[in-house]
Amino acid sequence: MSSGSKIFDRQLLLARQARARALGPATFLVDHAASELGERLSAILRRFDVAVDLGTPTDAVQRALAASGKVGAVIAAASLAERGHAFLRVAADEEALPFADGSLDLVVSVLALQFVNDLPGTMIQIRRALKPDGLLLAALIGGDSLTELREAFAAAEIEIEGGMSPRVAPFADVRELGALLQRAGFALPVIDTERLVVRYDSVLALMHDLRHMGATNILHERRRTPLRRTTVKRTAEIYAERFADADGRLRASFEIIWLSGWAPHESQQKPLKPGSAARRLSDALNTKEISAEEKPGRSS
User: pTM of the prediction?
Assistant: First the structure.
């Protein structure tokens, strides 16, 4: 996810998302996350005058922002800014934001930033675009998503084709994202995760949904040759053997990582300076304080 690496083919991503809209998109993950975002925003006791919805593939977040009553102007910013209910639309690549420093009160994004090649660079750009005490609130697909499909594909390809190719994206994990927020200069960073398990009648039904999400393989290192039917058949068999419930339906796990951070402002809570405590820890714990030179003795 560094600026020098190209993990994702972002032109292919745009083509896959356009195809998904033409087919009739599967939006249940985006809808769920947008609803959750609205609930999280409702717990914040302030109003945001200018908000940007960055890269969310549907207008679900824009509708959630409008319903929250917490925002004024909503700007939809995406590479294909042709959809949505926002008053303003801006064609923008998530890796090259067109916003001036200190111009935004709120930036939100749902299930889009996991496909950014230079995520640290994007976070720095977001931090700079926020006004002091502005908020970033985003949801990304996490690294524990589709572990079942990854395992089944790997086993089938090794067995049938004698080797495996990358099929499921190497999304970031919680620790990486927490450190990333701090490096980008966000104050009061918070990271938490949500795990959803969706059940399917078959692997083909799962792959159908992924296709209609625009979430099929866009890795630069993907295999360019078509997937063999025998490999798909064996993948389905392995998946059913390892990840079926008692009723025969198959489990598919999706991890959503939530992150939030504030642009620094003097009004925000800060940690106390060392030595500034008004009361000794030993008094609070009702214990005897022992100096560094003094060793505790043993009781006989």
Answer: 0.80
